[in-house]
């Protein structure tokens, strides 16, 4: 829509999780280090949490892209309690068929699948995204799955990724045995103001920007309006580019941003962005 106007190769602020646009803030670097450590150390359970839109899924995609061929990954990203048995979801994530038979029979089939992978020199990793939606009973069932082993080697590693509510869930007394299995964990914090500036400039650079479309002051206000949540930063920047295009503005200045947010406050349906403080007033001093 606006790409030609800003001389961009493609839209820089899409909402989809794209590893090509991954910005390595300090907190994202540490989170990925813990993910990689969990994989390489064969940790039975790794937990990564962060606010909605903090970049958790993007980190997962990047991790999956770099895993070696001897790692078999099952990804569960849309499981909901009450919609099918957990074991069925797990088996489906590994492309394993299951039958409407006893739990014991399906468990045996899944165990045989893990043993076969192990015999072929492969590792099996189960990744559960949006794990905060799980019940305590389901988390305990995952712990039992992680207990499947051969000699001294565990046959299934589990990575749980979710919103901050997952941390609260894991603190429940009945999940103490699950917590004892956690070998690596990290909470992704929101981006600071400087990171938001670098984040915006990096995405624009990848998209082929030829001038500074978002000046530093505008980026500071974007951080204020979004709280440093990458998904909200993407949403606001994308909408600002649409607004700037419609108003023939090659640069998203502070004034353009404030005008846009004022329109959102008046006509928008959802209050996604925080209100901005007043623009500083410059006072000249006579000598």
UniProtKB/TrEMBL annotation:
Supply the Pfam families for this chain.
AAA_22 (PF13401)
Task: Write down the CDD domains for this protein, in alphabetical order.
Answer: AAA (cd00009)
This one is known as AAA family ATPase
Q: Where is the AAA+ ATPase domain?
A: 42-183
Source superkingdom: Bacteria
SUPFAM superfamilies recorded: P-loop containing nucleoside triphosphate hydrolases
């Amino acid at each position: 829509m606006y790409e030609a106007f800003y001389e961009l190769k493609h839209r820089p602020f899409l909402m989809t999780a794209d590893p090509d646009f991954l910005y390595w803030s300090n907190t994202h670097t540490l989170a990925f280090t813990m993910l990689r450590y969990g994989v390489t150390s064969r940790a039975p359970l790794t937990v990564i949490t962060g606010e909605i839109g903090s970049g958790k899924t993007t980190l997962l995609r990047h991790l999956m892209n770099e895993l070696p061929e001897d790692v078999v990954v099952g990804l569960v990203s849309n499981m909901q309690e009450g919609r099918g048995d957990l074991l069925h979801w797990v088996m489906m994530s590994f492309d394993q068929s299951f039958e409407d038979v006893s739990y014991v029979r399906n468990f045996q089939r899944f165990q045989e699948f893990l043993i076969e992978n192990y015999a072929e020199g492969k590792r099996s990793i189960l990744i559960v995204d949006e794990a905060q939606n799980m019940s305590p009973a389901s988390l305990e069932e995952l712990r039992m799955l992680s207990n499947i082993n051969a000699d001294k080697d565990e046959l299934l590693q589990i990575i749980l990724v979710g919103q901050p509510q997952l941390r609260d869930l894991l603190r429940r007394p009945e999940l103490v045995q699950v917590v004892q299995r956690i070998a690596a964990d990290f909470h992704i914090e929101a981006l600071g103001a400087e990171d938001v500036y670098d984040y915006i400039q990096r995405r624009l650079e990848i998209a082929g920007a030829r001038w500074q479309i978002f000046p530093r002051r505008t980026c500071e206000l974007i951080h204020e309006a979004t709280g440093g949540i990458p998904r909200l930063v993407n949403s606001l920047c994308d909408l600002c580019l649409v607004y700037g295009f419609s108003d023939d503005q090659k640069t998203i200045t502070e004034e353009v941003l404030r005008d846009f947010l004022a329109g959102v406050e008046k006509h928008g349906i959802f209050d996604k962005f925080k209100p901005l403080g007043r623009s500083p007033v410059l006072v000249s001093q006579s000598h």
